[in-house]
Amino acid sequence: MLTYTLAPEVEAFTAGRDTALPCPVIQGHQVHGKKVAIIDRPGLTREDLEGYDAFITNLKGVAIGVRTADCVPVLLYDPATKTIAAVHAGWKGTVLNIVQEAIGVMKDCFGTNPKDLMAVIGPAIGPDSFQVGEEVVEQFRAAGFDMDGIWQQMGPGDGTPMSGGHHIDLFKANRILLEKAGLSPANIQIAGIDTYTDTAFYSARREGATCGRNINAIKLL
Fold first, then answer.
1. Is the pLDDT assigned to residue 159 strictly greater than 90?
2. Contact 201/195 with Cβ under 8 angstroms?
3. How confident is the model over 35-47, as pLDDT tens digits?
4. Would you list the domain boundaries of the chain?
5. Residue 154 has pLDDT above 90, yes or no
6. Is the dihedral of CA 64, 57, 46, 96 positive or negative?
7. Thinking of the domain 2-126+183-220, which architecture would CATH place it in?
8. What is the 3-state secondary structure (H, E, C) of the chain?
9. pTM of the full structure
10. What is the spatial distance between Cα 186 and Cα 189, in angstroms, rounded to a whole number?
11. 195 with 69: CB under 8 angstroms?
C-alpha cells in the first residue's frame, strides 16, 4: 500500500493490487463526469452515490475514496477548515476540469481558501504510456490547455506498445489545473507512478476494462 504524508491528522493512501483496505472507504459509482458529492454521514454506498466522481467531507473517521485503473486520483486536504476531498480525474474528467469543480464546492460549502489546500496526485497512467488519438488531443486543446506543456507527438514508434503517436501527460495537466485553482506548487505532491508499467497497480489499458481497481482514499483522524 502506498501512503502519503499530508498532516498528522490525515490518513491518505492508495491500495493497489491485492491490497486489503485498512478501513471502510465510501466510494461512488463513477461515470467520468464532474458531479461532486458532499458526504454528510457514514455508511453511504456506491448505489447512493451513482454518477459522482468527486467526494468531499469534514467528518472525522470517515474515509472517502475514488477507484482508478489508469485514471488520475487527486486527494485534497484543507488544514484550515479540516475538509478533505477525493477526485477521480481520468482524461475526460481532466478535460472537464473536475479538480477545479471540487475545489469550487469546497470554497462554497466549507469556506476553503485554495491557497491553504494540500494535494496528492496518485498513481495513474504516465505520459510515456498514455498514447491517444488525435480526437483526444483536440479535446484537450478545445478545453484551453497549453498543449506544449502536456502533449507530445512521438513519431511513428518502434512497434512496441504505446511507442510513437500522440501522448498526453495527465499528471502535469492536473497539476496545472490545481495551480490555476490557486494551490501553491509547493503543496502539490505527485506520486509519479505509471500504472501501465507498474504491475503493483491495476491498469485497464494493460489488463482490460474489467480488471480490478486501485482505491485512493483520504480520512480525517
1. no
2. yes
3. 999 999 999 999 9
4. 2-126+183-220
5. no
6. negative
7. 4-Layer Sandwich (3.60)
8. CEEECCCCCEEEEEECCCCCCCCCEECCECCCCCCEEECCCCCCCCCCCECCCEEEECCECCEEEEEECCCEEEEEEECCCCEEEEEEECHHHHHCCHHHHHHHHHHHHHCCCHHHCEEEECCECCCCCCEECHHHHHHHHHCCCCHHHHEEECCCCCCCCCCCCEEECHHHHHHHHHHHCCCCHHHEEECCCECCCCCCCCCHHHHCCCCCCEEEEEEEC
9. 0.96
10. 8
11. yes
In this predicted model, what pLDDT tens digit does every residue of 88-141 receive, in sequence order? 999 999 999 999 999 999 999 999 999 999 999 999 999 999 999 999 999 999
The cell for 213 is 481497481
- Is the per-residue pLDDT at 158 higher than 90? no
Give the cell for residue 145. 490547455
d(CA 196, CA 13): 19
CB-CB contact of 171 with 201 (8 Å): no
The residue type of 162 is M
Nearest to 30 by CA among 215, 198, 159, 172: 215
